[in-house]
Amino acid sequence: MKTVKVAILGLGTVGSGVYKLIQKRADVMEKTIGAQMEVKKILVRNINKKREGVDASLLTDNWNDIIEDDEIQIVIEVMGGIESAKTMILEALRAGKNVVSANKDLIAEEGHVLLATAEEHHVDFLFEAAVAGAIPIIRPMKQCLAVNDISEVVGIVNGTTNYILTKMTEEGMDFSDALEKAQELGFAEADPTSDVEGLDAGRKVAIMASIAFHSRVVFPNVFTEGITKITAKDIEYAKEFDSVIKLLGVAHNTESGIEVGVYPMMIHKEHPLASVRDSFNAVFVHGDAADDAMFYGRGAGEFPTASAVMGDVIDVARNMAYGCNGRISCTCYKNLPVKDIGDVKNKFFIRMQVTNEPGVLAAVAEVFGNHKVSITRVVQEHTQPHQAELVIVTESVKEKYMKRALEELLALPSILEVSSIIREY
């Protein structure tokens, strides 16, 4: 019986999940791919570390044991980081080995190089697990929705921040308490910066935008803003406006270029993304033929992410069986500009503290008017005898105009503080 031999780079949470799934599904691999699947080597940093349930004879700390082994046909990279993952993947592709990766950091920066190398050597480079864990989104956009002109991809692609915002919304927690709870449950790292500042989501949005719009978008193109400034007061106003606050990755393909960013947004409670709770992820796609489609599920974790990795591995093995590896490579055949955040239009929710005296609202309205900002809603609450809380909701306006208006407002003696600035979807 034919055997497909693979190597795993990294044996952390995802790598362990991949190894376990291969063992667990060994009896059905022949039916699934027409061959048995065997893990021949696992690259680890510390070969002496005891790993329960893993055959120690498979472990190696020497990359040459894998790259020089002609029997190994698929390399599964789940070690993360830029280097030495990039070097190993490129060497594997050049050696004629197929590669499956979950490395969003690397792909968001260097994906075009990896895909071009795979195409040159007629092998597969697949990365479904790099974006949203168990949720299929890369393959659907490359294959199932291939005929569509996709104009929008928007999603909740970070489970940590979605869990935190869910707790703030449903249980009235403040940000710090919700973050602490997320860390206790393992949803957040000890250093949560990448999650709560939107960096993790930004990398995933760069990957999705590149595929959706057939044009290269890299992580530095993505404007990112996190959730650390969201307060219980903002959550209350969102409820009053029949909305919820979510950290959204947003990508639009417009006539003047690609708009791409990650930031907290108020989204109406009737939108499908508004109901995505806790650590779940979802991606909403709009195409001209398919119209609206949403992909929902677990966005991280040992087995959800391993599920996506193994989906790619099985796809590679099937391609091997029919001699058609490399049939779908880089789809970025366009060279579209990526717009500066200042030229992107958004609606805004602005909460500010002002002196409680006549003429303040008129002065605020004048400043906004001078900077092409149209106001659609005003809410004023008296919080103290000499101070009021003023909430302004705007029409869609370029970010640069809003920035200039806020700078001028902050110079007015009647504006004590701009407490929150949140975009509206």
CATH architecture name of the largest domain = 2-Layer Sandwich
Count the strands?
Answer: 17
- CATH topology call of the largest domain: Dihydrodipicolinate Reductase, domain 2
SS element count, helices: 15
Low-confidence stretches: none
Instruction: Give the strand content.
Output: 25-35%
Keywords: Amino-acid biosynthesis, Metal-binding, Methionine biosynthesis, NAD, NADP, Oxidoreductase, Sodium, Threonine biosynthesis
Pfam families: ACT, Homoserine_dh, NAD_binding_3
Enzyme class: oxidoreductase
InterPro entries: ACT-like_dom_sf (IPR045865), ACT_dom (IPR002912), Asp/hSer_DH_NAD-bd (IPR005106), HDH (IPR016204), HDH_cat (IPR001342), HDH_CS (IPR019811), NAD(P)-bd_dom_sf (IPR036291)
Please tell me about this protein's structure.
The protein is α/β, with parallel strands linked by helices. The chain folds into 3 domains: 3-133 and 302-321, NAD(P)-binding Rossmann-like Domain (Rossmann fold); 138-298, Dihydrodipicolinate Reductase, domain 2 (2-Layer Sandwich), CATH 3.30.360.10; 342-424, ACT-like. Chain A, domain 2 (Alpha-Beta Plaits, 2-Layer Sandwich), CATH 3.30.70.1150. The protein has helices at residues 13-24, 29-33, 64-67, 85-94, 104-120, 129-132, 138-144, 159-171, 175-184, 193-196, 199-213, 232-240, 302-321, 360-370, 399-410; strands at residues 3-9, 36-43, 59-60, 72-77, 98-101, 125-126, 150-156, 223-224, 243-254, 257-268, 280-287, 291-298, 345-355, 375-384, 387-394, 397-398, 415-424. Helix 5 packs parallel to helix 11, helix 8 (159-171) crosses helix 9 (175-184) and helix 14 packs antiparallel against helix 15 (399-410). The longest helix is centred in the last third of the chain and has 20 residues, at 302-321.
